Each structure stands twice: as C-alpha cells, then as structure tokens.
Amino acid sequence: MTNYSIQQIKSVGQPPEVLNRRVAEHWSGPLYMRKISPYVSKVLLKLGISPTLVTWLMVLSGWLAAASVIRTGLSGVILAVVFAQLQMLFDCCDGEMARVTAKFNPAGIFIDRFGHYSTEALLAIALGVRVFLENDNVSAIIFGLIFALLITFNKVFNDMVHVARSFSNLAKLSEDKSVAVPRNKIIALIRSLFRFFPIHKIYHSVELSIIFLLAAIFDFLSETLILLTLAAAITVIGHLVAILTSSRLRA
C-alpha cells in the first residue's frame, strides 16, 4: 500500500485549477479546510478507503447535519454545524484522494451532487419541522418544503446549463467569470450588487447550519425560516434571469 506524503497530497490533490474554480470551491476551502484535509486524506489513503466511499461519508455527514436540526435546543443546531463541517472536510478529501490515486469515477461526481443537493434540501425541511415542533405552526412545514424546493431549483440550474450545452454539442463551459455576466447592462448592474449582499451564497450546508445556530441562540428560528424562504425565491428568479441573459447558453 502506497504511503503518500502530505506534500504529494497537496501538490497533486490540490492543483491551482481546483483551488481557483469559479463556482465549485467553497470559501472554507482556502480559508482553513484545505489546510486540514491533506492530513485526513493521508489517513484515509493509508487505511485503503476508496474516494467513492469517502464521498458516501460526505453524504452521510450532510444527512446527519439535517437530522440534528430537528433536535430542539442548542445541542441540535450545534451538532448540525459540526456535521456540516465534517461534510465539507470529506468533500475536500474525496477529490484529493481521487487525484492522488488517479482513480476517477463518474459515479463519485454523481454521488457528490446527490449529497449536496439532498443535504441542503433536507436542512430546509428540517428547519420547517423544528419550527413546527417548537411553535405548533403547520405553516412552518409548508415554508420548509417551499424553501427546500427553491434551494434545489437554485442548485439544479447550474447543472441544467451543462446539460443544455452538452445536448447542443457546445464546448464545456469556460471558468472565465465574464461568461456569467449578463449581456444586458441593467441586469448586469443588478447582479453586481449581489457582491455586496451575497444572499445567493448562503444555501450551502455550512452557511445554513451557522445561520440556524445563530437563529436558535437569539430565538429567531421561525422568522429566519420565512426570511430565508423569501430570499431563496429572489435568488432563484435572479439566477434564472442571469443565466438566460448571459453567454452561458451560447457557443
């Protein structure tokens, strides 16, 4: 069994084209997660665990984060934050391990997408269930389901762009940031404002779990559910308009 060094894992598993991805690399990666993940990847590789199995561990961690939200009291949302961080750690490790061992598996990418999409939808549903349990308000369940649907739409839109380009025999979408800029100047200006109010970036498991924790501390969960659902609706509409008015669906 090959004993990979930390330097090998960093150089091969964390190439610049991965760390500098326009969409896929989460802010926690360069901030702290990519500093921790090589050491965890080294242990997992030494144990002979496959990258695909690590991806499944990522999925499980996300589901445990969502399940934890339902537990009332601060302990539930604290656990959700911990499991969401663990999910992100495994998400870094599986890619590093695949690149180091040259074991690339399309199923791994599929499972990765499934893990993120299902986790974020389940977190939204879990928040609705928790608010219902705490306030006996049935509308919270409805808001949670709508919130989950909106999050899923927002995530799926990016994949739909790649599917549409593939079905139209167009080249793979460039990582150049200018590709995503709307051609209409007014829409481009509105989109640029989201750099200062990045509500479109709060629907990942890490951000959602932290928001849930803060809301629970300040006893603001019910209001947070409503505000996040409204923000998600705005995000979905804006995302759809931005895609249709940009160059992402053009050659």
The major pleated sheet works out as: none
Helices and strands: which structural class?
Answer: mainly alpha
CATH fold title: Four Helix Bundle (Hemerythrin (Met), subunit A)
Q: What gyration radius follows from the Cα positions, in whole Å?
A: 19 Å
Shape: globular
Q: Enumerate the spans where pLDDT stays under 50 for 5 or more consecutive residues.
A: none
| Average pLDDT reading | 89
Question: Based on DSSP secondary structure assignment, what is the total number of beta strands?
Answer: 0
Helix content: over 70%
**CATH homologous superfamily designation:** CDP-alcohol phosphotransferase transmembrane (TM) domain
CATH class placement = Mainly Alpha
**Alpha plus pi helix count:** 10
Terminal CA distance reads 46 Å
Instruction: State the domain count.
Output: 1
Secondary-structure element series = HHHHHHHHHH
What's the CATH architecture name? Up-down Bundle
Fraction of residues in β-strands: under 5%
